[in-house]
From TrEMBL:
Keyword set, alphabetical order: Lectin, NAD
Top-level division of the source organism's lineage: Eukaryota
Protein name as it appears in the record: Uncharacterized protein
Residues of the TIR domain: 9-182, 206-376
Gene3D superfamilies noted in UniProt: Helical domain of apoptotic protease-activating factors (1.10.8.430), Jacalin-like lectin domain (2.100.10.30), P-loop containing nucleotide triphosphate hydrolases (3.40.50.300), Toll/interleukin-1 receptor homology (TIR) domain (3.40.50.10140)
Gene Ontology molecular-function annotations: carbohydrate binding
Keyword NAD among record annotations: yes
Keyword Signal (UniProt): no
Transmembrane region(s): none
Length: 1183
């Protein structure tokens, strides 16, 4: 029997359509897009003079087309030719499904239900009835009806449901789905030839490998016993029904579930098979499952001393058995199903004992089991947990069934991700398909002697001869080519690090290799695969959560079941592992030998849920590259952060300096300036954090003995490209790592001598996005139809939207985020025509369950409930939501105090005041810098002054008195001197006002504020001046204290004003130009409309008018910028946020950014200062 890859496709797509409906409209656009995509298609052009030869030609084209698109339009069923084509298409679908033949119905102005109802109330039904009245071949009418009914049950595309009537979008979806299913070749002549269907079966979690349906009395004591033993020896997990007849216990209720959860259904047809009602019902269920399943289910009939034609026609001895069964059953509908199923099964390609094995039972069983092993995912290593889908993907890229060329595939990923393990699994799965196979490990670290041994092993593996006399690397290359050129081989080259390494095995030049040979290369570097000109490359992601947990348990306990009392620890460790199998195994081994320390490790995780490593054996999840450049100057290392917002580069003749603005736990952190002189041109690299991040850096170094950095080019995931400096000297480029840059290191003096980077894992996926980590999740909006179309997450700022909306139902979740947190997400995922789509989502908080949203069909998935909370999401989306992951903060609620900073220089001595109930006073001594600072704290009702941090001999003393406990600090910001040594300026913000600035606002800016947190202590460094300052934050539990905020802007100019409190805000009118000229607010006071005065001048050339849907909609926060304009500090831009949407921005987003996020309370009034323009703005909240 031919394997599923042996069918030769001449065309990619066959299109069946009714010309009068679509030829000059939809169809011409579809054909154009198919051509653009490089898809070779055969189309029926409604030829009027349809002769016998043309009919044969068209039916042959259907059989040799990988896809058949049936375009159902209003007059489709009025055409005899269209219906005959449909019958032929569905016949090919049944015969060629295991070869990858797919039928796609496209409903163009027709609903799928019309195909089965065929009533006169629809034009489609009218056309069919008219045709039936005129038809001469009345015997075809039942076939047409059955074909239409079957087509209705096949998943396809509907113009209205999938594209809301947008034909361009509709065509784009159809062609996109075809391209996902059809592996492409680079040669135009290879289009449609030797195509291997993309495996989607990995999406389905199969409970069994094989379900076997057979008549017990015929073969149980002979061939069945041998067959089941062979399956067991091959490691194939089967569901056997051999005990049902013997015990006469019918468990038919469980059989459909067993059939649906079996990868392959084997139907063993024997002489008395049809004499069993149970066997016939099993056959009906198997074929029904095969018709409706898109997960990779395969049906294989085995004809054991029975001819396929006897099964089809229910004739001969097989037919006699069927008649005996009918004698005791009078249900005509059931009998019709049996007949139809037997006919369908008899038409399927299968195995015949006499034709395929000449009656030899042992050889027959060997053939069947060998074929099953090719279909079923097998892995041999106990560590190969969760890799089956990756193995399937790589095998699909290898295109084993095509022998028209030599194909090279690259498998790449970060260190420890499991590349070698996946390559080994691929090697074992497909080795039987080749004349010779060889797996050469760790080629990249092999010395000359080891390379000689690897050359010898390659020849031995393929030729099966020993004692080969080969001693010279270069001359051996010609010997390898001469001896292996007549063999179709599979060669795996593991851990390639340089381009020339594959030359030692002759595969740098592929012309000598026999067609059909395959080369699989594993490496950490994607750029290397581009240099090697591989045909396809595959980036390997890590295993999922459950697989990671299973792997770690396996190495800690020797089994994959949890040990009582330690499940929380393992969940937390898996969260930090980032899907790295090496880390998971190392952690498991480490824990297995230190069981008495597990509680201590768990305690460390509780106190700091964002640790990258716990103890020394837990190496960091980060991967570092470089530095590239010279060895002069002093080394620097910024370590790692959550992300990067901006890079400031000063360029002269060479790169003079670089400064990086990082983000850590929502706070802004600026690195020291790496380099010397500030003379030169300043260039800025601005990233749209968190959705945009750096993926690589390249540049040029000088070629003299100094070797400093001449130029730099930064590359982002969104195609950002920032070249800075002159491209001369020696080129360098960071190797492509599966991650994003989260920190820099290198060497510097008065210029930048060298540069390297730290990478953090971000996962994998097409059209991927990453919201990053946040303090809280406040709102979720899910738009769903039959699948999840889009999701939107609102954290402390504007919402992050992912996916597209196609007119589905909108569901909004408003979390009571101060006391309610998300702890888990579950849902259903479906692989539809090769594309993974999430069909349903359910969110679980610590208080309630939201959902399900969408349709609960497909494979269920679930995020773990770690005992902590979800603090951010990442995933991928195209036309729908394709994948979803979450950042977890395990058990963080047990330790709510957060330590941030310090910000500033490294001089002086470190100090730490500790944590208190709050801050009452601040005293500062200033000259050009902040010389000294001290704090008065509240310690459980007792006032305590800290030590003076710095030199108390300052000429200017400034004191800040807070109205404690009603007033408390919520943020601190300031400026660090340009040489990053000391703090020059500080500004404090309380829940009621802005305090400062104190000192000179020049240098590098920093700011630290956490949503709904207050400052309860300070720490830092000081000597003769204040070198650095950091803070301790604690959540604000009594939000009634946050009655007002701000104003933000300049508070010592203009006229202060206060609209006071109201019941709510109805309307806002903002006038703006280069600045915010004025703001006017209309309030509601106990049901009365109250118009507030205009605050500001009468200028402004643009207007933002906000009409809230009061009282259901209300304001929750605002943000903006303030900066210098004509020598005055004024508000430059404003953005408002309600509980339903974002309004703005209006004005110019220039200057210092300010933002006060929603605290869960309604804004009921504004206050501020104004003159000619709006100088400052604050707000009041409801009590």
């Amino acid at each position: 029997m031919p394997s599923s890859s042996s069918h030769k496709w001449r065309y990619d797509v066959f299109v069946s359509f009714r010309g009068c409906d679509v030829r000059n409209k939809f169809l011409s656009h579809l054909f154009r897009e198919l051509r653009r995509a490089g898809l070779r298609y055969f189309r029926d052009n409604d030829i009027k003079d349809i002769g016998k030869k043309i009919r044969v030609k068209l039916f042959r084209a259907i059989r040799y087309s990988r896809f058949a698109i049936v375009l159902f339009s209003e007059n489709f069923a009025a055409s005899k030719w269209c219906l005959d084509e449909l019958v032929q298409i569905l016949m090919c679908r049944r015969k060629l499904k295991k070869h990858g033949h797919v039928v796609i119905p496209v409903f163009f102005g027709v609903d799928a239900t019309e195909l089965s109802k065929l009533t006169s109330r629809t034009k489609f039904g009218q056309g069919f009835k008219s045709l039936c009245r005129k038809a001469r071949d009345k015997e075809k009418i039942p076939k047409w009806k059955l074909a239409l009914a079957e087509a209705k049950s096949i998943s396809g595309f509907d113009l209205q449901k999938h594209a809301n009537g947008d034909q361009a979008s509709f065509i784009e979806q159809i062609v996109g789905r075809l391209l996902e299913y059809i592996p492409r070749t680079s040669s135009p002549d290879a289009i449609g030839v030797g195509l291997v269907p993309s495996s989607s079966a990995s999406v389905h979690r199969w409970k069994y490998d094989v379900f076997v349906s057979f008549r017990d009395g015929d073969i149980r004591k002979n061939v069945a016993a041998h067959f089941f033993r062979a399956l067991k020896q091959a490691g194939i997990y089967y569901f056997g029904d051999n005990e049902k007849e013997k015990t006469r216990i019918l468990i038919e209720g469980k059989l459909p579930d067993a059939i649906r959860n079996s990868r392959v259904s084997l139907v063993v047809f024997t002489a008395n098979y049809a004499d069993s009602r149970r066997c016939l019902n099993e056959l009906v269920e198997i074929l029904e499952c095969n018709r409706r399943d898109h997960q990779g289910h395969v049906v294989l009939p085995i004809f054991y001393d029975v001819e396929p034609c006897d099964v089809r026609k229910q004739s001969g001895q097989f037919g006699d058995g069927f008649e005996r069964c009918l004698a005791t059953h009078t249900d005509d509908l059931l009998v019709q199903k049996w007949r139809h199923s037997l006919k369908e099964a008899g038409n399927l390609s299968g195995w015949d004992l006499n034709n395929d094995a000449n009656g030899d039972q042992a050889y027959f069983i060997e053939q069947i089991v060998g074929h099953l092993l090719k279909i079923i995912r097998r892995t041999s290593s106990r560590d190969a947990i969760g890799v089956d889908s990756f193995v399937d993907d790589v095998i699909s890229l290898l295109k084993i069934g095509s022998e028209d060329k030599v194909h090279v595939v690259g498998l790449w990923g970060m260190k420890g991700i499991g590349k070698t393990m996946v390559a080994q699994a691929v090697y074992h799965r497909v080795s039987r398909e080749f004349d010779g196979v060889s797996f050469l490990e760790n080629v990249g670290v092999a010395n000359q002697d080891t390379l000689l041994l690897l050359q010898k092993r390659l020849l031995h593996d393929v030729l099966k001869v020993r004692d080969l006399e080969i001693y010279d690397l270069n001359s051996n290359i010609n010997k390898i080519k001469a001896k292996l050129c007549r063999h179709r081989i599979l060669l795996v080259l593991d851990n390639i690090t340089e381009k020339n390494q594959i030359e030692y095995f002759g595969v740098g030049d592929r012309e000598w290799l026999k067609y059909g040979s395959r080369i699989l290369i594993t490496t950490r570097e994607e750029w290397l695969l581009n240099d090697l000109k591989v045909d396809d490359n595959y980036m390997l992601p890590g295993p999922g959560y459950e697989e990671s947990l299973q792997l770690m348990r396996l190495h800690a306990f020797g089994k994959d079941q949890p040990k009582e009392g330690y499940e929380e620890l393992f969940k937390s460790l898996v969260h930090y592992a980032g899907g790295l199998p090496d880390f998971l195994k190392t952690s498991g081994f480490f824990l297995s030998s230190r069981q008495n320390q597990w509680h201590e490790i768990l305690e460390k995780l509780v106190r700091n849920p964002h640790l990258d490593s716990i103890l020394d054996p837990f190496s960091s999840l980060r991967q570092s590259v470089g530095p590239f450049g010279g060895h002069g100057g002093d080394s620097f290392d910024d370590q790692t952060y959550d992300g990067i917002r901006q890079i400031v580069v000063v360029i002269g003749r060479v790169i003079n300096s670089i400064t990086i603005n990082y983000v850590q736990n929502g706070c802004f952190v600026r690195s020291p300036r790496h380099g010397g002189s500030l003379r030169g041109h300043t260039r800025y690299v601005n990233l749209d954090y968190p959705t945009e991040y750096l993926t690589s850096v390249s540049g040029y170094t000088s070629e003299d003995y100094c070797q400093v950095i001449n130029s730099l080019t930064f590359h982002s995931n969104k195609g950002g490209h920032w070249p800075i400096g002159e491209k001369k000297g020696k080129f360098f480029s960071f190797p492509q790592v599966n991650g994003k840059i989260i920190g820099f290191h290198g060497r510097c003096s008065d210029v930048l001598d060298s540069i390297g980077a730290h990478f953090g894992p971000f996962g994998n996926g097409k059209n991927r996005w990453d919201d990053g980590k946040h303090a809280d999740i406040r709102q979720i909006v899910v738009v769903s139809g039959s699948a999840i179309e889009s999701v939107s997450f609102t954290y402390e700022g504007p919402p992050f939207r992912h996916g597209r909306t196609h007119g589905g139902k909108t569901n909004t979740i408003n979390l009571d985020w101060l006391t309610e947190v998300l702890i888990s997400v579950s849902g259903y995922i479906v692989n539809d025509f090769g594309s993974t789509v999430i069909h349903s989502l359910t969110f679980q908080s610590n208080k309630r369950t939201y959902g399900p949203f969408g349709t609960e069909t497909g494979r269920k998935f679930s995020f773990p409930a770690t005992g902590g909370k979800i603090i951010g999401f990442y995933g991928s989306s195209g036309s729908h939501l394709e994948s979803l992951g979450a950042y977890l903060e395990p058990i963080s609620h047990l330790y709510p105090i957060k330590c941030v900073g310090p910000f500033g220089g490294q001089g002086g001595l470190s100090w730490d005041d500790g944590k208190f109930n709050g801050v009452k006073k601040i005293k500062m001594m200033l000259e050009d810098d902040v010389n000294c600072i001290s704090f008065e704290y509240d310690d459980n009702g007792e006032s305590i002054w800290s030590s003076a941090h710095g030199n108390e001999d300052g000429s200017s003393i400034h004191t800040v008195n807070l109205n404690y406990p009603h007033e408390f600090l919520i943020s601190v910001s300031g400026y660090i001197r340009h040489d990053c040594s000391v703090i020059q300026s500080l500004t404090f913000e309380s829940n009621k006002r802005r305090l400062g600035p104190f000192g000179k606002e020049a240098g590098n800016f920093f700011r630290c504020a956490l949503t709904c947190h207050k400052i309860i202590g300070f720490h830092g460094r000081s000597g003769i001046q204040l070198d650095a300052l950091g803070v301790y934050f604690e959540p604000i539990y009594d939000l009634h204290l946050l009655k007002s905020i701000g104003p933000f802007g300049k508070q010592d100019r203009g006229n202060p004003w206060d609209d006071g409190d109201s019941t709510g805000v109805r309307k806002i009118m903002v006038k703006a130009g280069d600045v915010i000229d004025s703001i006017t607010v209309e309030y509601d006071k106990d049901g009365r409309v109250v118009q507030g005065p205009r605050h500001g001048g009468d200028g402004g050339y643009s207007t933002l008018e906000i009409k809230l849907n009061y009282p259901g909609e209300y304001l929750t926060s605002f943000s903006g910028h303030f900066g210098s304009y004509q020598g005055q500090i004024v508000v430059r831009s404003l953005t408002f946020q309600s509980n339903e949407r974002i309004y703005g921005p209006v004005g110019q987003e220039i200057g210092n950014y300010f933002y006060f996020p929603s605290i869960g309370k309604k804004m009921v009034g504004f206050h501020g200062q104004s003159g000619w323009w709006l100088d400052a703005l604050g707000a009041h909240f409801e009590p």
